[in-house]
Every structure is written in structure tokens, then in C-alpha cells.
Design goal:
The chain is α/β, with parallel strands linked by helices. The protein has helices spanning 37-55, 71-80, 84-101, 117-129, 158-165, 205-217, 231-246, 277-280, 286-294, 315-339, 346-368, 373-393, 398-414, 429-443, 447-459, and strands at residues 2-5, 10-13, 21-26, 59-64, 133-135, 139-142, 181-186, 201-203, 221-227, 251-257, 260-262, 265-266, 302-303, 462-467, 470-475. α10 (315-339) packs parallel to α12. The longest helix has 25 residues, at 315-339.
């Protein structure tokens, strides 16, 4: 397998440091709010990487952190009138609801920054002892100029960064350069804090990940992943402080996914141009969201909207249609196999057998080529078309039809997709609201209004079934 290493800006053979064992650290969310579609992309992408490496026979130790203390956490907790820990506990539970629904396998370890304070303090102490860290008026800082390889991930030159930084005036007493980043922030009134050799305070963002990675995976790891927006300064700073402290290489391969954009602008909570996963899941199954993300190569940007450029259906609607082709094919193959002959037409069977082998080979080649899930899905559809043709001919053997079906299922499962399971019915909020209004109308014995509402629901593509246990909602086509 070859992956694009951000550090070297090229594809490289992916070989673990320890034979047969990959150690992966994935930058996780700051848990102050619900997950949006942009947050979901790295979670889905690197879950897929993990699944594929395990499919290839590797042991994978996968660590994904939670940042549960920072300025956003403190501000949101104050806004809600709860403690930072209460906010973190609540939002981590919400995170797992979304991640589990996306069929993301939980990490081997999900460390929280606040549970890693001793390791963070030890790491900062080491940096101070080695002359890389110093105390300023408001905290402890890493001196960027003291680390000669600074910029090797982002390919920024230190002199260019220093020139740009010189234009920014720092009002922090004792801070040596605007480039220097905080390792430990001294306590402010009303903020959570921990004891340290430098006084009460809390960790900076960058040091948290270095400490959690080191504590759970050792000084050198195979793969560090995250969004492309983390390359600088977060991952650059992680390299500096980790390698300055240990004297060893920190990461062997850096993998970064592209943005999810809205109208060509990066989706983010700060810009207000985001779609919460929870809201999208009221309109589309989580599995469709996962499939939609995997339809694009992970390094390419995705431009998302709830309508396409002509104001028509959302790209998620197109994903629904596309994914149903796989589901329908599986149903067709299962049905066709029941009546197919044990020995099929030789030419038909040979063509299908070749299609199965080609589909598996092309799928594997795509995945081995920098986790190209877009081409891997295309390979699945090539097999779907060939299998559908064989089924329609009524001349293929039952064994080969079932082999094609099982191959499609297997390749989808490795991508975290389950087209062989019953399709999840997502009831739009509008339909739910109409059902409640109809129920109230029936209670008020306004049956004419109840019938009008039933017709409105039918126009939206759903039918109602009144049962002694309550109203059941079905797709109109069922």
C-alpha cells in the first residue's frame, strides 16, 4: 500500500516500524458542540484506513483523543451554566451517538486531555530542562527558534515565519517571539486549573496531543492523521515539542483529509456555515452520509450543499439513489440464485467469474493507492453491473451468483458499509410534525382534517398505518 505523506509531499510505501503492527494517532474533536459534516470526514476516513489495514492482516493500535479543556470549552460551559467536565461528558456521549451511527469502530484508546495532565506536565518539564521552554508572564512557552527543524511538515521557512511574526506585536511580558506557542497557561479566575511546577494552570492545545500520543503509543508512531487545517500550526508544533523532548522522530507518515466546503468555503462553526450531522440524519440515514464521504478521495475537497448547483436535489439524494443500486443488486442476486441452475452456461459463468476476480483486484488496487475509496466504490459498481447482467441472463450458476453477492458485501463491509442489512427509514421532521397534528385532529374528532393531513403526508412519500400500538410510518412504495 502507498499513501501520500504530507511531510514529503509524495506517495510512499506504507511500512510499519514494528513488523505487522501499525500505531495510529488520530486527532479527535474539541467536545464543546455536536459534530458537523466536516468533523465527520476525518472520523470516517481514518476509520476506513484502520479497517483496511486490519483486513490486510495487520495489527492496528488506534488512538483518538478528546480535547476536553480549552477556551471554547470554558466559554460554552459558562454559557450553559455547567462545569467544563459536565459539558465534556455530555458532548462525548453525543459524539459516540453520531460516530457509532456512522459505523465508526471505537478507538482502542480514547484519551481525554484532562486525564493526561501528569504526562503533559512531565513533557513540559523535559522541554524546560532541555532549554526549549521558558516561563513568561502568562504561562510556559515553547521557543520555536530553538528547534532547528521547525517547518519541516508544513514546509514553511522559519525566517519567513519570523518575518511575518515580527509584524505582530505581543503584549505578553517575557514572550520572546510571536511564533512561540503556549505549553501551559496560568490560571485565570473562574477557569479549571491543575497544580504544576510553574503554578496552577491548564495545558495548551498542542502539548495535549503530544503527551497523549506518547503516553499511549510511545515516542515514535507510524501514522498521525487529521484534517488539512491541522498541518500548521497544530501538527507542526506537535513535531517540534515531541522531537525536542524525545530526540527521536515523532511520526513516520502524516495523513490529512481535505475540507468539506459550503459554497467553496471551509465548513466550520466559527463561520456559521455548517450542517450538524444530527440534523442531516433526520433527512438521510447515517450510512448514506458515510457512503457520500467515501465517494470522494479523502485528500480532495468536497463542496456540500442541501441542493446542487441548479437548485435541485442534494448530493446526499444522489448518494441515496447510488447506494440503492447496490442494495437492489444484492436482492436481485439472492432471488436469482434461488432459481438458477447448479451448472450454468459456460460462457456466462466464465464472464461472471472474471468480473468477480477483476472487481476484487481493482478494488484492492484502488485502496492500496492512497486509500482511494472513490475508485474502490467504482470497482464495486463494475461488479454490480456484471452480476446484474449475469442474473438477468438466467444462465449463470447459483454458486457464482451467490459468490458475486458475497464479494460485493465483503468489499462494502471493509468500507464500513452494510448494504445487506435492512435499509434504515429516516422520517423527516416535517412528517413527524404532521403525524402529531393528525393524531390531535383524530382526538378532536376532526376526521376531515385528519384525512387532509394523511394526504399531505402521502405527497411527501409516506403512508400511515393505524395499529392498536400506535401509528406506524412507511415509505409510500412499501
Amino acid at each position: 500500500m502507498r499513501i501520500y505523506n504530507t511531510a514529503n509531499r509524495k506517495k510512499e510505501d506504507l511500512v510499519p516500524l514494528e513488523e505487522g503492527h501499525f500505531k495510529i494517532y488520530a486527532c479527535g474533536p474539541t467536545v464543546y458542540d455536536l459534530m458537523h459534516l466536516g468533523n465527520a470526514r476525518p472520523i470516517i476516513t481514518f476509520d476506513t484506513l484502520r479497517r483496511y489495514l486490519k483486513y490486510k492482516g495487520y495489527k492496528v493500535t488506534y488512538v483518538q483523543n478528546f480535547t476536553d479543556i480549552d477556551d471554547k470549552m470554558i466559554a460554552r460551559a459558562r454559557q450553559q451554566g455547567i462545569s467544563v467536565k459536565e459539558l465534556a461528558d455530555k458532548m462525548i456521549a453525543e459524539y459516540f451517538h453520531d460516530a457509532d451511527s456512522l459505523n465508526v469502530v471505537r478507538a482502542d484508546v480514547h484519551p481525554r486531555a484532562t486525564d493526561s495532565i501528569p504526562g503533559i506536565i512531565d513533557l513540559i518539564s523535559t522541554l524546560e530542562e532541555k532549554g526549549y521552554a521558558y516561563v513568561a508572564d502568562d504561562g510556559v512557552y515553547f521557543e520555536v527558534a530553538s528547534f532547528e527543524d521547525y517547518g519541516k511538515l508544513s514546509h514553511h521557512k522559519l525566517e519567513d515565519l519570523e518575518e511575518g511574526a515580527s509584524e505582530r506585536v505581543s503584549d505578553v511580558e517575557g514572550k520572546r517571539s510571536a511564533l512561540d506557542f503556549v505549553l501551559w497557561k496560568f490560571k485565570k479566575e473562574g477557569e479549571p486549573s491543575w497544580d504544576s511546577p510553574w503554578g496552577e494552570g491548564r495545558p495548551g492545545w498542542h502539548i495535549e496531543c503530544s503527551a497523549m500520543s506518547q503516553e499511549n503509543l510511545g515516542s515514535t508512531i507510524d501514522i498521525h492523521s487529521g484534517g488539512v487545517d491541522l498541518v500548521f500550526p497544530h501538527h507542526e508544533n506537535e513535531i517540534a515539542q515531541s522531537e525536542a523532548a524525545s530526540g527521536e522522530p515523532f511520526v513516520r507518515y502524516w495523513m490529512h483529509n481535505g475540507f468539506v466546503n459550503v459554497n467553496q468555503i471551509k465548513m466550520s462553526k466559527s463561520k456559521g456555515n455548517f450542517f450538524l450531522l444530527r440534523n442531516l440524519a433526520e433527512l438521510y440515514p447515517y450510512e448514506i452520509i458515510r457512503y457520500y464521504i467515501l465517494q470522494s478521495h479523502y485528500r480532495m475537497p468536497i463542496n456540500f450543499s442541501l441542493t446542487d448547483d441548479e437548485g435541485e436535489d442534494s448530493p446526499l439524494d444522489a448518494a441515496v439513489t447510488s447506494y440503492r443500486r447496490i442494495r437492489t443488486s444484492l436482492q436481485t442476486l439472492e432471488f436469482a440464485a434461488e432459481t438458477a441452475p447448479e451448472e450454468g452456461d459456460k460462457e456466462t459463468d466464465q464472464a461472471l467469474e472474471e468480473a468477480i476476480a477483476t472487481g476484487r483486484r481493482e478494488w484492492t488496487e484502488a485502496m492500496d493507492d492512497d486509500l482511494n475509496t472513490a475508485d474502490a466504490i467504482a470497482a464495486i459498481f463494475d461488479l454490480v453491473r456484471a452480476a446484474n447482467t449475469a442474473a438477468a441472463s438466467e444462465q449463470a450458476s447459483s454458486a457464482l451468483l451467490l459468490d458475486a453477492r458475497e464479494t460485493i458485501i465483503e468489499l462494502c463491509h471493509i468500507l464500513g458499509l452494510k448494504p445487506d442489512e435492512q435499509e434504515e427509514l429516516v422520517i423527516p421532521a416535517e412528517v413527524k410534525e404532521l403525524v402529531e397534528k393528525r393524531t390531535q385532529a383524530k382526538q378532536d374528532r376532526d376526521f376531515e382534517k385528519a384525512d387532509r393531513i394523511r394526504d399531505e403526508i402521502a405527497e411527501l412519500g409516506f403512508r400511515l398505518e393505524d395499529t392498536p400500538q400506535g401509528v406506524h410510518i412507511h415509505l409510500l412504495e412499501d
